């Protein structure tokens, strides 16, 4: 299938992208390829036209474009969406990587006071400014790899002040015009039981202190937060505690989006379906009952290929989920345990290790990932009225993005966020 060559479609108007476009329709898990298309993005940063070059040329013949981008011979996909990251922290854990390579498990390290506890210690001690600089550099790497919308979690504070500090760091990126990426913010104060507390005390602190403080800041317009997360796991927070926290979060308008069934089957799939969660992440250990429960809800399964890869865990049952009609999304899970900022690498791992097809991996990294954040109405596909977020790939077949392992700088010609080159 050759690509129709286009010299130029519009020489006037607002912003236009010319070339062959891959149009992912807004239906979960389905996408189709169209060629010889042009895309017009308006000054608000939304898609104003997506059609054949000919139709665009006649429809926008009167328009003055401020920029024209020639994508002849390239392919265009929706901007990638990373559905799960922990990007605000200081103090790397490269020493723990060595321990894990030598055979320690994730929970061995965590229980010995390392893991999340190590990161909490360093993140609590860091200033908001220090954390923002680190966060911003990570966002820039993500953008270079094609990410245009990213979910960002707090969770290395575990007390009111430090969690608020992290959420403010995340919020800052929305107002920084030097970093072009859309952000969905997640409060994850129940990411671990803080050292010196019991899990009951931690739940109490989240419900009685942290959540009310966050609500106050949201109500007074000082902060925006969209989702609530809990690490539901044996030895961390059990299903009852998880339910309690998520229900409290729901009451203040947060979307339920939590870690579950990662190292043990805790019944997280069932709990998420019952709570109408937008998303449950990990699910390496989800049972068939959990999958069936999820298939009856709208809950998206957020699959994180770096976890099983780095920790040498069993793979999540992705094929079974797809077979049962559970919408599957992908996330990098960027965190000090899994230092990966690249969605194309995640897509590659999902295809090779979890037997996803490349079109499935694309839907999982665009429209389904947007749905996991309750943002599929504005993000995740190329459609009129949606955000002008796109990745232009330097190849006539978009699959080069997945196939060319770790070569994003060669494969990605441009990343567009809200019509601007990111
Ligand atoms: O998704 N499982 C819990 N949270 C992260 C790991 C965070 C950390 O180890 O710092 C995850 O893998
Ligand atoms: Fe995580």
TrEMBL record:
Cofactor(s) of this protein: Fe(3+)
Gene Ontology terms describing biological process: L-histidine catabolic process to glutamate and formamide; L-histidine catabolic process to glutamate and formate
InterPro entries recorded: Amidohydro-rel, HutI, Metal-dep_hydrolase_composite, Metal_Hydrolase
Listed Gene3D superfamilies: Metal-dependent hydrolases, Urease, subunit C, domain 1
E.C. number(s) listed in UniProt: 3.5.2.7
Catalytic activity: 4-imidazolone-5-propanoate + H2O = N-formimidoyl-L-glutamate
Broad EC category: hydrolase
Pathway assignment: Amino-acid degradation; L-histidine degradation into L-glutamate; N-formimidoyl-L-glutamate from L-histidine: step 3/3
Record keywords, A-Z: Histidine metabolism, Hydrolase, Iron, Metal-binding, Zinc
Domain Amidohydrolase-related: 76-418
MF GO annotations: imidazolonepropionase activity; metal ion binding
Gene Ontology cellular component list: cytoplasm
Family: Belongs to the metallo-dependent hydrolases superfamily. HutI family.
Protein name, per record: Probable imidazolonepropionase
Species this protein is from: Ciona savignyi (Pacific transparent sea squirt)
């Amino acid at each position: 299938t050759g690509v129709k060559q286009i010299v130029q479609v519009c020489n006037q108007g607002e912003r236009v992208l010319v070339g062959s476009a891959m149009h992912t329709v807004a239906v979960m898990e389905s996408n189709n390829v169209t060629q010889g298309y042009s895309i017009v993005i308006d000054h608000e940063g939304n898609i104003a036209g997506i059609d054949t070059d000919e139709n665009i040329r006649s429809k926008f013949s009167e328009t003055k474009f401020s920029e024209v981008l020639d994508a002849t011979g390239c392919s265009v996909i929706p901007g990638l969406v990373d559905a799960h990251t922990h990007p605000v922290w200081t103090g790397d854990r490269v020493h723990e990587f060595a321990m894990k390579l030598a055979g320690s498990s994730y929970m061995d390290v965590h229980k010995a006071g390392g893991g999340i506890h190590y990161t909490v210690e360093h993140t609590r001690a860091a200033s908001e400014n220090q954390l923002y600089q680190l966060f911003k550099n990570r966002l820039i790497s993500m953008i270079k790899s094609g990410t245009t919308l990213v979910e960002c979690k707090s969770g290395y504070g575990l007390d009111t002040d430090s969690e608020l500090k992290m959420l403010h760091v995340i919020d800052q990126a929305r107002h920084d015009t030097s970093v072009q990426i859309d952000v969905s913010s997640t409060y994850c104060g129940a990411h671990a039981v803080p050292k010196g507390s019991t899990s009951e005390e931690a739940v109490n602190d989240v419900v009685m202190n942290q959540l009310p403080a966050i609500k106050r800041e949201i109500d007074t317009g000082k902060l925006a937060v969209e989702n609530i997360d809990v690490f539901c796991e044996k030895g961390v927070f059990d299903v009852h505690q998880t339910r309690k926290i998520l229900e409290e979060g729901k009451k203040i308008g947060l979307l339920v989006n939590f870690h579950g069934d990662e190292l043990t089957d805790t019944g997280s799939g069932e709990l998420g379906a019952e709570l109408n969660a937008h998303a449950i992440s990990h699910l390496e250990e989800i049972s068939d009952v959990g999958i069936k429960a999820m298939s009856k809800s709208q809950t998206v399964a957020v699959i994180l290929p770096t976890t099983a890869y780095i920790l040498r865990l069993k793979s999540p049952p992705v094929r079974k989920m797809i077979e049962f009609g559970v919408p599957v999304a992908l996330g990098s899970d960027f965190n000090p345990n899994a230092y990966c900022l690249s969605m194309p690498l995640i897509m590659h791992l999902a295809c090779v290790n979890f037997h996803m097809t490349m079109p499935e991996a694309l839907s999982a990294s665009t429209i389904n990932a947007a749905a996991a954040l309750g943002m599929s109405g504005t993000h995740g596909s190329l459609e009129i009225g949606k955000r002008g977020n796109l990745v232009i790939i330097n190849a006539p077949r978009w699959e080069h993005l997945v196939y060319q392992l770790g070569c994003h700088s060669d494969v990605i010609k441009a990343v567009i966020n809200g019509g601007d080159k990111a």
